[in-house]
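Run log // design_07
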């Protein structure tokens, strides 16, 4: 382990990710379920008949299934670079529910951070940013994947946060420009094509970038980190996620109480 070793710069990570992306066409194919999921949301936003009643429920369920499966195929294909497209799609099924579990835990732990303050939410978000990659690469359970993600980030939080932030800003610019072009086109067909193209580029590219950042952190730690796991520690993660479920409700009540006192 060499904790003094620096992470590659964000532009080095982007350059390496770019090379990988264009050397493997499979990343575009693997992102198809997630692209279809994004297309469903686009249609719900632009076709009013689909955003009502039973159709809305059906499309939301379809979106969730496709999106999670799309993430699973991209994760497997990114981590196992030599895997075929067929293998990636097949293995993604076996990781579907573990991925749902670890995503649930990570998401609501961040919400729990919002109960406290914005800063803890940011800290949690960076700690657990690689939990899905740990799940797929090391084939472990959800709570353990969260713990390991945190261990890999430990000592490199600011460096990790900075690279994620810069990359996120650059992606935001690309998505913002595509959204602007979609609006000025005034054509649903062109807007759909722009949405498909952007998602086909952004989704796999962002997964490759994040995985390279994860591998760089893992290398600095000397490989697979080892630490003590107790039942109590695992329970704290689950309790934190459960509290996070109620974070929006608690926040709303607190906000209303503050507004009421101010009147």
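design_07 sequence
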């Amino acid at each position: 382990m060499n904790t003094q070793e620096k992470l590659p710069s964000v532009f080095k990570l982007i350059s390496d990710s770019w090379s990988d992306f264009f050397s493997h066409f499979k990343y575009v194919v693997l992102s198809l379920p997630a692209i279809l999921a994004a297309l469903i949301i686009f249609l719900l936003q632009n076709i009013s008949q689909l955003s009502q009643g039973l159709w809305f429920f059906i499309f939301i369920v379809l979106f969730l299934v496709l999106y999670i499966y799309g993430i699973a195929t991209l994760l497997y294909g990114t981590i196992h670079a030599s895997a075929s497209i067929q293998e990636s799609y097949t293995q993604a099924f076996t990781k579907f529910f573990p991925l749902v579990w670890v995503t649930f835990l990570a998401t609501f732990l961040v919400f729990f951070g919002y109960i406290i303050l914005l800063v803890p939410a940011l800290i949690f978000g960076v700690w657990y940013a690689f939990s899905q990659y740990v799940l797929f690469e090391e084939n472990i359970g959800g709570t353990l994947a969260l713990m390991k993600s945190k261990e890999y980030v430990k000592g490199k939080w600011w460096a990790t946060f900075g690279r994620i932030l810069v990359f996120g800003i650059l992606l935001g610019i690309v998505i913002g420009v595509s959204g602007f072009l979609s609006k000025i086109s005034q054509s649903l067909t062109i807007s759909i094509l722009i949405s498909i193209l952007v998602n086909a580029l952004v989704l796999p590219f962002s997964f490759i970038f994040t995985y390279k950042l994860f591998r760089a952190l893992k290398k600095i730690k000397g490989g697979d980190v080892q630490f003590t796991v107790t039942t109590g520690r695992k329970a704290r993660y689950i309790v934190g996620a459960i509290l996070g479920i109620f974070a929006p409700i608690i926040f709303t009540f607190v906000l209303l109480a503050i507004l009421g006192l101010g009147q």
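Residues 10-100+126-224 form one domain.
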